Amino acid sequence: MADNPQPVAPKSSLPTWVPIVLVVNSLILVGVAGLVALRRPAAEGGSTGESASGEGGAKGPGPTLKLSDFTVRLRDKDGEHFARISFDIEIAAEKDRDYVMQMTPQVRDAFISYLADRTREDFEGSAAIQKTKQALTERLSSIVGPKARALYISELVLQ
Question: Whole-model pTM?
Answer without folding.
Answer: 0.61
